[in-house]
Amino acid sequence: MNNVRPRLEELLFGSVENMSVESVDVADAVVRVEARSTARRAACPGCGCWSSRIHGSYLRFPRDLPTSGKLVVMSLRVRRFVCAEGSCPRKTFAEQVPGLTRRFARRTERLRSTLVSVGLALAGRAGARMSDAFGIQVSRNTLLRLITSLTDPPTATPRVLGVDEYAQRKGRIYGTVLVDVETRRPVDLLPDREADTLAAWLSERPEIEIICRDRALFYAEGATRSAPQALQVADRWHLWHNLGEAAEKCVYRHRACLRPAPESPQEPDQVSESPASSPWPTGHRFAERTRAKHATVHALLAAGHSKRSIARQLGMGFSTVLRFSRATEPEQLFTGQWQSRLTKLDAFKPYFDQRWQEGCTNAWKLWEETKARGCPDGYGNVRAYVSRNLHGKPQPVGPGRHPSAPSPAGFSPTPTPWPRTTSSSSRPCWPTAPNWTPSPSMCAPSHTCSPSCKATTSGMDRSGNRRRPAQPPAIRPASGT
């Protein structure tokens, strides 16, 4: 064991000084390493004074880089020293192992540097997925937090400076971004886009030779005032953008000079098929889907694809692709369960059409009438047939409409006409229904009711009940009496 320990210390902590490995425990998924620091003294982080007086010790468990696909957890024993400087606000402090630990850290320095490299290369979500593949489970927020904790690297004064604006809040708050054009890296961000702010930044850097800027006036003023030695040029993107805007404005001003394109003559052999000749009319969802699939399959066949390749690309069966490829026209595919299928309403469709022409447009009324005639279908199918097939058909207008239902024994093809009235104030006599007799008060002046009609309807309402005599309106006393 004494010969193995130096090798373990060299393997695990080759770049760390004053470290001693006590033991290594290898489990199924975790490798635990027990180690301790062998430094004789440590520097106080408050005053920098060195101290060798030990106050106590405790264990830290920082995570290290995984090895052989297993998680490595260290059990590191560190000591707490007593600060020898009496004026130092810190009475005790814990030692830190250089290159291995830092204050309040739960990861070793080499694991931290690895995660920082992954975060700088792949950022948050992609970096978290890559770290998980390495056996290091971290969140995207942890990677972003490690990146933001880094100090800004020192930047040299660029020779060619790019100046442009950026929006912190579009339409409201804008700033200025400064970029090194040669290295294509951002140099600095200015809080606004004023000429004084840019002039103050350029006055501290006289080494700039070329300024590639936006064509805004405030950038031109700031660059001319503080960097007269620099050559000001417009970048390529703004040149193309401004050229495009100028061309668009010119075309817009002369839009009246543009001539309409001549219509191409239609070839006589191309005859458009009328929707009525197709089994499925234009706009039907099954028809449009079948036509689109037929066009796609034949386009891929014309491009040189095989039928099995087309089946894989479109997610269709091979037999379906064969059926589409053999059909020269999409109308040849309009067969199957959606074509010429008998329904329970077929025997009653002529009756529906006749009642629609008579003026009955209530689907519930039509269903009740056909139900009395022995129709086995439900109200939903009747309503669907009326809304899909009858709506939009012309109806008779004027005295020819007859809303009453014919007798259940049969229906007449010609509706009963309304009686004509002699004046606008007189009302026509209503047609006779099975359970209701018209009142003489509702008949036209030219109509003569029979004695039985007058005897049965005098003093009766429509439901057959005796009408109550009209009461005179109550007289209310005047206010204040």
Distance between the termini: 123 Å
Note the main sheet: 6 strands, mixed
**DSSP strand content:** 15-25%
Task: Please count the helical segments.
Answer: 14
Describe the structure in brief.
With 481 residues, the protein is α+β, with helices and mostly antiparallel strands. Helix content is 32%, strand content 17%.
Structure commentary:
- By secondary structure, the chain is an alpha+beta fold.
- It is about 30% helix and about 15% strand.
- It is built from 14 helices and 13 strands.
- It has helices spanning about 5-10, 110-120, 125-135, 140-150, 195-205, 215-225, 235-255, 285-300, 305-315, 320-325, 350-360, 365-370, 380-390, 450-455, and strands at about 20-25, 30-35, 40-45, 50, 55-60, 65, 70-80, 90-95, 160-170, 175-180, 185-190, 210-215, 230-235.
- Strands 1, 2, 5, 6, 7 and 8 form a 6-stranded mixed sheet that branches. Strands 11-10-9-12-13 form a 5-stranded mixed sheet. A two-stranded antiparallel ribbon has the order 3-4.
- Strand 12, helix 6 and strand 13 (about 230-235) form a beta-alpha-beta unit.
- Helix 2 (about 110-120) crosses helix 3 (about 125-135).
